[in-house]
Specification:
Blueprint: E1 2-4, E2 15-18, E3 32-37, E4 45-50, E5 53-58, E6 68-73, E7 82-89, E8 96-104, E9 107-114, E10 121-128, E11 131-139, E12 149-156, E13 159-164, E14 167-173, E15 182-188, E16 193-201
Parallel strand pairs: 1-2
Antiparallel strand pairs: 2-16, 3-6, 4-5, 5-16, 6-15, 7-12, 7-16, 8-9, 8-15, 9-10, 10-11, 12-13, 13-14
Length: about 210
């Protein structure tokens, strides 16, 4: 396994982890492309620390509500079969997610976690030409909205599985994005969101 602070490549049949522990606090990490959509305000992504632990933070603005922000890993393997990230909301607004099969900033799959309000849910979406469509979801979650939660996706051909905290919550089939694509971190433009321990894996199976 290759462990890197931020940017890094993946050899075929291996995996990599982005920990952000060696990145300078207060600055965006290298190796990412940052995008916004739906007229969101320009997003600000920086590395922050709690003790020795570093993590990537999206500093959301209320004006960004309704828009989306993406931090796309530049050097991830385009044929990744699984990806995961620890996520946490630091404010009272917004949702977070994990994106993959990213063709560009307007076309990708998304596993989105919404812990705001009384109706918490995790959903699988496809974003086509910037338009978001919900394909499947699981609601009635009972999670601490201020805690870290791990989202993971596994895709083998058109079979897609979404995991939350190591438990499979969704299983769907979709052929919209048959071509390989990049992996990224996603949140709404108003979210103050934290991301850590981002893992991208080319090996097959539910690892």
């Amino acid at each position: 396994m290759l462990v890197v602070a931020a940017a890094g490549g993946i050899a075929a049949g291996s995996d990599a982890v982005w920990t952000f522990d060696r990145d300078a606090a207060g600055k965006p990490p290298a190796g990412f492309t940052f995008r916004v959509a739906r007229d969101a305000a320009q997003s600000l992504w920086v590395v922050q620390r709690e003790g020795a632990n570093g993590f990537l933070t999206h500093l959301g603005e209320p004006a960004g509500r309704g828009g989306f922000a993406l931090a796309i890993l530049d050097a991830t393997a385009r044929g990744a079969t699984s990806a995961s990230a620890r996520t946490r909301l630091a404010g009272s607004a917004g949702t977070v997610g994990l994106a993959w099969r990213i063709q560009d900033g307007d076309n990708y799959y998304l596993a989105r976690l919404d812990l705001q309000g009384d109706e918490q849910d995790v959903g699988f979406y496809r974003i086509v030409n910037g338009n978001r469509s919900r394909v499947e979801g699981e609601d009635d979650l009972e999670l601490d909205p201020a805690a870290w939660h791990t989202l993971k996706i596994v895709q083998q051909e058109d079979q897609i599985r979404v995991y939350l905290g190591g438990i499979r919550v969704l299983s769907v089939r979709d052929r919209t994005f048959a071509r390989p694509g990049a992996v990224g971190l996603w949140c709404t433009g108003d979210a103050v969101a934290h991301f850590d321990d981002v893992r991208v894996d080319e090996r097959r199976g539910d690892r």
